[in-house]
Design brief:
alpha+beta; five-stranded mixed sheet; 67% helix
Length: 255
Amino acid sequence: MDERAEIELVLFIGTVTMLLVALGLIIFVIFYQRKIIAKQRRINNLELDNQKKLVAAEINTKEREQKRIAQELHDDIGASLTAIRFMTQKIDDSQEVKSELMDALGLAVGKVRRISNDLLPHVLEELGLKDALIFLTSELNRQELVKFSFDAGHHEKLMLDKSEELSIYRVIQELCNNILKYADATKVKIEYRSSKTGFLINVIDDGNGIIPEKNQRSESLGLKNIESRIQFIEGSIKRELGRVKGTIVTVEKIY
């Protein structure tokens, strides 16, 4: 082999070697990047899982405390007021005074029962989300401030666990309370749709059409509570202005 052929062979081998090294480096970089991305994904999933656990623990702690208070209101204070009401009937006094006392005690008993149900919705535990929302609507109408209506529409049995139902109920309850406080509305409609693949709830009011900004949501305890519960059920919430006036809040989850 002459000198020129040897040089060309060396150059060829050198070129091939450099290409193989470059290819090896590229493969290493790609493999390393994928490894880093996979590791970061695992870290993000772990952080998300830990965050969900913290939210769930916070919600469960709050619900346990509300359940305890509700039971004390119903079993202790409610029972005491009812006993006093019966005892009042035996008071030897004018019928007018006795009637006023009975009315006042009856009003107090009713308030205790309402507060107890707000803290621990018995209808939800016994009959499920749809009936609980119907009951919530009827209770809100007792206040005679805003006209609430409920539309179940197309409704298929959706298998939700108790914690999911409670979170959804609390979100709708908080949305309705916010409307009563801030929206200056006269009518509110709650639409409930469900199927085997998920649910959708619209809360529609004819109020002043105020949608809280993101910074307001972080500062408001009620709105923060809504966001936490939506995150807990892995659902979504959307707020938009109505066509004429008011707002439409959509709570949704697709399985």
